[in-house]
């Protein structure tokens, strides 16, 4: 939840960034079910109520049972930034909102149905994000064949998920990832109060491009392997955010 004394409302999420149906990963470790924190209606989201707090100092040990999840997990986060000290060619001004025209339809609680489908709207052509519309919270599928998704995707080629251009500020953002899907959320429910030095932020004040694995994969036998980490295995991904101003 956003702080009442800080304009920051980001989060370092916990073990599973997106939703798990009924907050229960079922039939794990010899048939056990695990009750997680319900913090999104009947579901669990962002790894639980606290996630991994507001910061991660590059290493984090998540103990067995934290937020209800089984097994201990060691996480390592590496962040790199790159800047240019001389003039370099910039990407084209042409916007590419999405590299995918497929998505996972969801039920009323945000849990995917059992099929991958074509988007009901054209999301590969440029469109404008207005102050109140469009209101999107969709899971775009970049890799539609689950058998091609490894537990560690870092060796996969980076793919452009979306490009965003602001003609007024002349700011630009590209999001690239090795992950098989991403959630695109246009901020319909943003409600951050005004604090000293920062104005309030309301509906559609920001947007989210969240790369990851298929939502609720832990409860789908055909998808489970892409997110189920066993002893000695490594889960990995690579996300690249490119931002510049003309």
TrEMBL record:
Query: Would you tell me the protein name for this molecule?
Result: Uncharacterized protein
Q: Which Gene3D superfamilies match?
A: 2.70.98.10
Q: Name one GO molecular function term.
A: carbohydrate binding
Q: Where is this region: Disordered?
A: 1-105
Q: Which InterPro entries match?
A: Aldose_1/G6P_1-epimerase, Gal_mutarotase_sf_dom, GH-type_carb-bd
Segment forming the signal sequence: none
Transmembrane ranges, per UniProt, are none
Q: Name one GO biological process term.
A: galactose catabolic process via UDP-galactose, Leloir pathway
Q: Where is the composition biased (Low complexity)?
A: 81-100
């Amino acid at each position: 939840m956003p702080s009442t004394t800080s304009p920051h409302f980001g989060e370092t999420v916990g073990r599973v960034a997106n939703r798990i149906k009924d907050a229960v990963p079922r039939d794990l470790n010899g048939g056990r079910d695990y009750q997680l924190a319900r913090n999104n209606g009947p579901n669990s989201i962002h790894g639980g109520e606290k996630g991994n707090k507001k910061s991660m100092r590059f290493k984090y040990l998540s103990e067995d049972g934290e937020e209800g999840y089984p097994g201990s997990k060691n996480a390592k986060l590496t962040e790199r930034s790159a800047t240019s000290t001389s003039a370099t060619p910039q990407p084209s001004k042409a916007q590419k909102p999405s590299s995918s025209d497929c998505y996972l339809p969801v039920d009323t609680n945000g849990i995917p149905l059992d099929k991958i489908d074509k988007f009901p709207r054209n999301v590969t052509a440029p469109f404008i994000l207005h102050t109140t519309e469009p209101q999107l919270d969709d899971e775009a599928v970049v890799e539609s064949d689950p058998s091609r998704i490894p537990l560690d995707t870092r060796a996969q080629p980076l793919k452009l998920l979306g490009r965003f251009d602001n003609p007024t500020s002349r700011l630009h953002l590209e999001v690239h990832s090795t992950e098989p899907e991403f959630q695109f959320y246009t901020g319909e429910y943003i409600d951050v109060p005004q604090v000293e030095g920062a104005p309030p932020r309301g509906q559609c004040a920001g947007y989210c491009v969240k790369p990851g694995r298929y939502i609720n994969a832990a409860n789908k036998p055909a998808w489970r392997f892409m997110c189920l980490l066993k002893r000695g295995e490594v889960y990995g991904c690579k996300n690249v955010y490119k931002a510049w101003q003309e």
